[in-house]
Amino acid sequence: MTRNAFTEEPGSGIAVNRNETAGCSSRNVRGGIQQETCRPEPLHFYGNMAFSLNLVFREQVAMRAHRHRAETGKSLRYHIPLPGDSMEIMDGRHTESVDDLPDVITSIGFENIFQPEFLERFTAGGHLRAAPAAPVHPAFEAAGFIDPEGRYTIHAVTPYVFLVDRVKLGNLKPPETWEDILHPRYRNNIICNGSREHFSYILLFYIYRLAGLDGIRRLAGNIRDALHAGLIARIAGRPASGAAIYILPWFFARVCPWTDSTTVIWPSDGAIVSPMWLLTKRAVRPEGEIFTRLITGGEFGEKAAAMFSPVANIDVDNRLPPGAAFQWLGWDFVRGCDPMRLKRELLKAFMEEWKQTGMPRAAPR
Asked: Which of 7, 87, 161, 173 could disulfide-link to 75, CB 3.0 to 4.6 Å?
């Protein structure tokens, strides 16, 4: 397998190929010539964060890498894909051995670290585990985010909330729970995060857990459109566009500028979440521990909380609304299904119903 090592060029913030090697060996080939083969040095870190945290995380890592080089003369090797990029290291076709894995891995949602080959080869095989146990935020503990088997750490979450346009809602009662958004009174009056080709599977997972396939079909009847959360934040509350209710990450709901006509509602039965995962090798090099401490530490935690991404660190003020709680799919649910296959099945059921009940034809404004 061919892999590249990445280090951070001091002061540039750009990951560059260094082709550093962990060790070389020689073997005899035709004619008695010695051929040297070298195995690339494994990365100390590989992973990403939610879209809203990507830039601040890159900055934090770049500063820490620069400091490490200044103090030790050595580089931290890492790679931070963009949130929407494929994470090839978690594809069994690209990662042959546990020796090829980075010391520390992060991922978002349910797609990358739950790829079947990666699960079977590395996670279920016991080669990866959660970060060392530490006290967590009470809301994280109450939601059940701590893995009882010690395989995964949820170090932060992206909560999903309701953003309501009070004018467009009119005399309708605003939704308070996730069951509420399935009510026919909101037919064709909800816009959610995603796109018409890539609907939010996070929402589908939770609705399926709540109300099964019937809930997926009821939801489809109420969805007017699916748009990028950044676009929702710009149009929600404007007179000439949008819908009465929006479902989107808390960060984007909070940055919507049309506060005179909109209200952010944290569901009373808890905000559903997209988890941000952290896994480590059982034997972590000191350089890998630097990344674990950075990700779970207070400095990055405070920056994440300021971007409306609550963290597990108990010492960080997550700025949650009074009484705010989270919903969690549950470890039995997550471990008892193939998330990738379930995603395909739920998207198929949703799209079939949506096409019949009002999938938009015109481009969004």
From this structure: 7
